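Dear support,

I submitted the protein below through the web form. The confirmation email said the job was done, but the results page showed an empty box. After a refresh the structure appeared. I'm attaching both so you can tell me whether what I see now is the final result or a partial one.
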Amino acid sequence: MVRAPPCHGGSCGFEPRLPRIFLIYLMLCTMLVCAACARQSLDDFLEEGEGITRALVIELKQVRTRDDLLAHAAKLQQLFNALVDVIIRAQEFKDLHPNAQPSNTYVNEQIMGDQLRVELNRVLRMEGGREVIEKTQEEALNRLDTFEQSR
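What the results page shows now:
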């Protein structure tokens, strides 16, 4: 991976790199909207993913300092891994049941996704926040990358 100096460090012409959590967020939203999957149906996966997203928001709201973030890092890592588990299982379900559709329209996933984005942005702006968050999601993202490459 190549890193460029920050955009505010001089006119380098690069936009700042979006943290990889936004990839999870986008994939989750995509999965929730088009697959809304779960163990028995797409609705079950949607509910499970929404619950994990809610837990991530709650955990992130408790973070006020870098020390708080370090104290919550293990739990955040666990939740990121759980979220990737749901994404992978939902995609596998969708692959086996290509015509499956969610039975309900879910508004909560948009609300939870927005809340997650707000909290992640807040934590990422903390000094050292980006590095800690990227470390907590590294294992989950590697698993997700491996899954996607194996398809």
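Response: this is the final, complete result; the empty box was a page-load delay. Residues 39-146 form one domain.
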